[in-house]
Amino acid sequence: MDWNFLIFAVLKIAAVLGVLMTMVAYAVLAERKISAFIQDRVGPNRVSLPLIGSIPIIGPLLTRWGIWQPLADGVKSFLKEDFTPSHVRKIYFWLAPAIALVPAFLVVAVIPFGSTLGAQKMVIADLNVGILYTFGIVSLGVYGIVLAGYASNSKFPFLGGIRSSAQMISYEIAMGLSVIPVFLIAGDLNLGGIIDYQAQHGWMILYAPLSFPIFLVSAFAETNRLPFDLPESETELVGGYHTEYSSMKFALFFMGEYANMLAGSAMMVTLFFGGWTLPFAGLDTAPALGEWWKGLLHIGIFIAKMLCFMGLFIWVRWMLPRFRYDQLMDLGWRRMIPLALANIIITAVVVMLMNS
Amino acid sequence: MIVKRTQLTWWERLYLPALIGGFKVTLRHFKNTITGRTRVTQQYPEEPTKVPPGYRGAPYLVRDQDGDTKCVSCQLCEFICPPKAIKIIPPGDSGLQSDRANAEKMPREFEINMLRCIFCGFCQEVCPEEAIFLKQDFSLTGLARGEMVFNKEKLLSLGGTHAGIQKWKHKLDEAEEQETFPIQT
């Protein structure tokens, strides 16, 4: 047993999980604030902490920005009554929120969120089949939603579950096909290897300009964000698959959605936008052993890039109305998948010609 | 009516013009809100709301210019009150003397149940002594039902003063106001 490996792995898992949960909590706040500003509202601006709230200028300012809102939300979701309706299928009803949340966290395991810190590579699991693992895990995410829809045993969640299964399965194909050109170009399935390639040759979005929009749209569909939020669609399905859920079980679905968004952002950054690298100021190489500040800077760069995509996720929500169900299917099967296939063939031909 | 559906051009079917348009609109709203150019929300408890003149809020009893109770316990308001929110206990045969010299009596107790009150203004309309007025208060709160039954003391303290009896002058003003068009507030 390699104790050194074990200790550092546990440390990294704890750190990543901590950062991820914090980011989930504040992604919710960012969503509420940005949504509010886009709709000419003010957003959450009431939660104040006893001591910090009474500091002259900073206290009220933090309150106005809603910095403590995630705390209140968290406490609320724990203290609310956890109601299980009598008509549900109990085991699946209890299982579904966990199944919805866990895959989102598992995906993060293979994402290289930084270069190195000391002698440690900043990735929890440096898998050679990183991307295959990711797609395998992401496709599990649909089970949580379908199971919730089935277990709730009532109309609206059931419709939500059906919709999500159809939507997520169809867009997963487009998503999987859209990243194949990336591997054709980089010649590596390891996400760290792809970042190395991008550090040497420039960001992947320059080489696979069509892959990125397909991946982006599919990521929106996979994470059930507007304009693809048919599984939830508040206006027509009450709450979609989580109509019957309350308290912490609902919060798990909610966290799962945001964790999925974060994982999707991390994937996009890794695959198309150079991961933790920046193409100037010598930031595109792994730091020497003593340069821990550079290692931290790389993590910062990665998180900053991720936050840009989170902003995009939130922003797009208020730009586009929800697709009709047939339009969604039409876009997935008749536009995205053929486009992704053509993209693969063109890339393959170009790569072959370049190599010969 | 038949709505003519024009065929979308190839460019429009790419969703891109709609996307760009959406980006522009949301960006404009975001920018204007964050810089404070659009300000729609009123932060209510901090920024008090001003109600328009003539607003019918909670009915309170008023005192006259000498600080005396104007109510003479005639019970007209109690009888007119549609939801029976007002309850008056008259002084009785040898009861409470009134504050004012020219008034025969005043109520021993005067209660308005604010939970029942519908703010119709009939009590103000019917009062011959101009002793009860619908004020501008609209946010009445209490922790129990009992707290929402306002007694005479509370109603008088909330009502403030209102000089003399000017009912017939007001009636004249109102009548004149109704002759002119449009009605001035």
Helix content of chain B: 25-40%
Beta percentage of chain A is under 5%
- How many helices of chain A in DSSP terms? 14
The profile of the biggest β sheet of chain B is: 3 strands, antiparallel
- Distance between the ends of chain B: 44 Å
CATH-derived topology of the domain at 59-169 in chain B: Alpha-Beta Plaits
SSE run of chain A: HHHHEEHHHHHHHHHH
Task: Compute the number of helices of chain B.
Answer: 6
Strand order of the largest sheet of chain A: 1-2
Describe the structure in your own words.
- The complex is a heterodimer of chains A (356) and B (185).
- Chain A has one domain (80-355).
- Helix content of chain A is 68%, strand content 1%.
- Chain A has helices spanning 3-38, 58-65, 69-79, 90-108, 130-138, 141-152, 155-186, 191-201, 204-207, 211-222, 234-237, 247-272, 292-317, 325-355, and strands at 116-117, 120-121.
- In chain A, a hairpin with a 2-residue loop joins β1 (116-117) and β2.
- The longest helix of chain A is centred in the N-terminal third of the chain and has 36 residues, at 3-38.
- The N and C termini of chain A lie far apart (47 Å).
- The model of chain A has no long low-confidence stretch (mean pLDDT 84).
- Chain B has a domain at 59-169: Alpha-Beta Plaits (2-Layer Sandwich).
- The longest helix of chain B is centred in the N-terminal third of the chain and has 19 residues, at 16-34.
- Classes of the chains: A mainly alpha (356), B alpha+beta (185).
- At the A-B interface, α1 of A face α2 of B.
